[in-house]
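Friendly challenge for the regulars: who can give me the structure tokens for this chain first? No prize, just bragging rights.
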Amino acid sequence: MKKSLVSMGLVTTLMGTLLAGCSTDKGTEVASSPKASEASAKPDDKSPIKITWFVDQESYKKNWDPVNNLLDKKITEDTGVSIEFTSGNDDKLSALIASGDIPDMITVDKGAPQRGVLEKSGLVAPLDELIKKHDPSFNVAKSMQDWFRNPDGHFYGYANYFWAKETFKPGDTIYSNQGLYARKDIMDQLGIKPEDFNTKEGLVAALRKVKDSKTKYNGFDVTPAYFESWVISSFFGAPREDAQGNLLDRERTPETLEAYQFLNRLYREGLLPEDSQTLNQSQLTEKVNNGAVFALTNKAIKWDALYAKDPKAIFVSVGPVLGDKGKQPVIDPVQASGWTLTMVSSKAKNQDRIIKLMHYLSSDEMSLNVTYGPKGITWDYDANGKVKLSDEFIKARSEDAAKTKLKYGNGTLDWLINYVPVQRTLPVNGVQETERTKSNIYFSKYTYDMLAFESTSPLGGTEEAGINAKREEVRVKTRAKMILAKAPEDVEKLYKEGIDQEEKLGSQKLLDYQNKKFQEAKKALGVPFVWPTNIKK
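First reply, four minutes later:
Bragging rights claimed.
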């Protein structure tokens, strides 16, 4: 697949155009060499202080414990900082903003309307100014600064999982959480081969073997599949840009209708359960880790606990299944512009220490520590520069993954993580990590440069955002009805009814808005097309 490669100069121009508007004040650029940034990441002042940090994720629960948690201990020893975390939903965040008294640090979803409120209210301080004043060696990728630059010329938040292309080295790539994964132990047991998943009929036959065998695992009936419609439609080649370069609503393509018809067939044949439309991610994760799922399409569902109990119960990459037209699959990568933004209160008493903490936590090696636990205890570099997990950590994780996380801190503090250095050190030792690395490589060949599409989401609080929210409600309900329909002819009928409902909500106005943003993005990037099949022409 030919990918769209653009210069970072054009990318940063795009970022400023899309997110900053026409601002004459470009703020303070924060830039230094990565080596200098890494060398000075550990703060000099280690006197004890406590900072408060709110995370706009209700499910995030963390108590700072430098006595029993080895990552917390390392951070406190290296910086002198202890952290008092609180978390909550959007309502709690809005209440904090309304009070005018926010914690020292605050982490918000990058697309949340509260982000804009915080930046305009004066409650958070410009990061570029804080860095220039307190830690000029803190190197923040220019593409991150420009992507999140406010119309006032400043940027206010550090993004986690931001893929800064100007920092890429040969071999670096943006991976995807979409794919097709199946339990290798069950495949071997039933004589199912990876290539069986390449066609609809082969996939159906493989799932039917699981159903007909009445396979059980640790007392649980194994469900053949949990599949998401948008992943299947991507496998079928549903486009997002037409031949003239206009934005397409992927949900309204023949390939997506075909995906719904296929999923409905799986449901009617007892291969896809009814609760596939009702389970949330944590509930599905529990089923997966109980060993009760054979195949799934979402790698964001973590199966670490299952593998820790049974190293043979490993999910491997298979497929992807092709649609009737045999079009090349095109799947979405993770979002290049990251997920959350972490900001600093303009009233925080220890802004100098906070900036140095952010520098420290965002360093390459700390990204590895956050992923695996403290270097020298849970992992170290091998002779090839890859991560080698310690026997102690592997043993502890195999016995109790949850208890291990509490002790070593792996995966508990990723609000400033950069995944690029983590990806460069893969695969680490162990079947579980090796298979995850293989899946990154396997499905990355089907991904594309999605940056232009990331600019099309309407801003919170706008009329278009309201239309988008109401449209999504319709889609969730219609999607479930189509997949769980009793007869195949009902699927297309429900599909058309969904379109009618969306048109009444103003879906065309939303699409026009999104297409305008899309065209602006491509113009700034200097490319007429971004969809892979269009680029090939």
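Residues 463-483 form the longest helix (21 residues). The two ends are 12 Å apart (CA to CA). Your move, everyone else.
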